[in-house]
Amino acid sequence: MQRQRETAIDLLRGLVMVIMVIDHTQEYQAGPGRGLVTDPMNLAVTPGIVYFWRILAHFCAPCFTLLMGMSAAISGASSGKLVRRGLVLLALEATVMNWAWTFNPLWHRYFFQVIGALGCAMIALAGARRFSASVVAGVGVALVAGHNLFDGVHFAAGTAGHWVWSLLHEKNLLALGGGFEVRTTYPIVPVVGLALCGYALAPLYTGRSRWVERLGGVACGAFVVLRATGVYGDPHGWDGSVASFFNVTKYPLSLQFVLMTVGPALLFLAWGRGWRQAQLEQLGRTAMFFYIGHLVLLHAAALGVAVGMGWPIDLAGRFGGIPEQMGFPVWATAPLAGLAIAVLYPWCRWYEPRRWRYL
To answer: Which of 84, 136, 177, 225 could form a disulfide with 200 if both were Cys (CB 3.0 to 4.6 A apart)?
Structure first.
């Protein structure tokens, strides 16, 4: 299999990084409880532009996962390298990622989010190298498409089954003792499944990308059918409204959520071969560095504004230390996100030749 970079993969990864920055910038908008609204998918209380950006942000986690699997296969990374990368991602989630959100290493709640889930998926990819693409694809599709069969399965809080199930399938809050707890925001089963699908898809993409276009079209069509009929694939049905149609379950990634996001992503990959956009490709090649940097930059900037305006910050008592009354208007989201990207871009160029290639 070829080992050169596929520019369309870097391009798509860079594009979703930009969308992600806009989504995370919205965390610092004005409104009760600091966030603009409690549910950005509810058009009854959400400005249309906020709803639109949130819909676009849905593409981030599935695209990261799919592209990670494809890149692992295309690069020919060894099992040992994939395991090391997975362990590094898990370590980053437990330390740097949580600190970037809270700026308090002793904050009482830890979050097992997308970076941790990707770490588990990366380790699973190390095992996938032992099997044929068809076997890997079968397992991946089974995990992505089949896990919603178990949406009604629950275990009593505090039991071993509850812990295991929360990590695998169900978003929950788990007590760690000593007043600490962990939120399993991204259960790993569908994430691992989607990464395996990406791994199996790589030979098809590098060899016969026309099939990737067809798969993308099938995924989009399957989403429309499943969403409209409500027969399977998401625990929350469609009530007939536009907002409800796209309000599919993200935690964990439901089948309908994956179809809605991965379908267009596959079409982009198929149609985008040969497209070039140097700045987005740069962000795509340094995605992890950019991911950490944008969280720290946005958070630090928000605290700096609070201090400059004389508002008290409370890193021990409030999540992230952001004052209750602080926030910026909706119209400022895109310009502020653009400013953050402009600040980070030259650092990404500086970082790329210096990154630790041992991983």
So the answer is: 136
**Rounded to an integer, what is the distance from CA 310 to the centroid of its chain?**
35
| Residue 317 Cα to chain centre, angstroms | 27
Nearest Cα to Cα of residue 302 among 24, 18, 17, 23: 24
Q: Residue 216 and residue 210: Cα distance in Å, rounded?
A: 10
Q: Using alpha carbons, select from 25, 343, 337, 244 the residue that is nearest to residue 234.
A: 244
Q: Report d(CA 234, CA 92) in Å as an integer.
A: 30
Average pLDDT, the chain: 91
Closest to 252 in 3D by CA, of 341, 324, 151, 359: 151
Mean pLDDT of 189-198: 98
Burial class (CB in 10 A: 0-12, 13-18, 19+), 58: buried
4 has a pLDDT exceeding 50? yes
Check if the beta carbon of residue 264 is closer than 8 Å to that of residue 216: yes
